[in-house]
Amino acid sequence: MSEGIVLFAHGSRDREWARPFETLAATLTAKVTGPVVIAYLESMQPALAEAIGTLVQHGATSIRVVPVFLGAGSHIKEDLPRLVARARTDHPKVAIRLDAPIGEQSTVIEAIAAAIARG
User: Fold this and answer.
1) Three-state SS for 119?
2) What's the predicted TM-score (pTM) here?
3) Phi/psi class of residue 11: alpha, beta or left (left: φ > 0; alpha: ψ in -120 to 50)?
4) If DSSP codes are grouped into helix, strand and coil, which group holds residue 9?
5) What strands lie across the sheet with 36-40, from one edge to the other?
6) DSSP string covering 12-51, please?
7) CB pairs under 8 A, 24+ apart, for 84-92?
8) At 70, is the secondary structure helix, strand, or coil?
9) pLDDT band at residue 72, thresholds of 50, 70 and 90?
10) What is the rounded CA–CA span in Å between residue 12 and residue 10?
């Protein structure tokens, strides 16, 4: 079984905005065995459906969608579950799991607080 990971971010009209997400994807790729891709909600490509389709084409039989958001607003509570449900319908043989937003994990909160404290 091959697991792919989609890092799901908001997107921006400013291409430079994506740089930290690209760095995160590259860093994560070095730590996991399966493929890692980025998907965006709006203003940038690929969209979630396209990113999931790419992973499936490359043999992923399970996919984790990891929202790279600090908290769960309406995009995470409403838009993303709808997009994931559509992807599950489009790829019924693939297990697609939606993680909690990365910013709600205690280790991430601790890392951010430590970085701010170091000033």
Assistant:
1) coil
2) 0.93
3) left
4) strand
5) 36-40, 3-9, 62-67, 95-98
6) -SSGGGGHHHHHHHHHHHTT-SS-EEEEESSSSS--HHHH
7) 84/48, 86/49, 87/48, 87/49, 87/52, 90/49, 90/52, 90/53, 91/52, 91/53, 91/56
8) coil
9) confident
10) 7
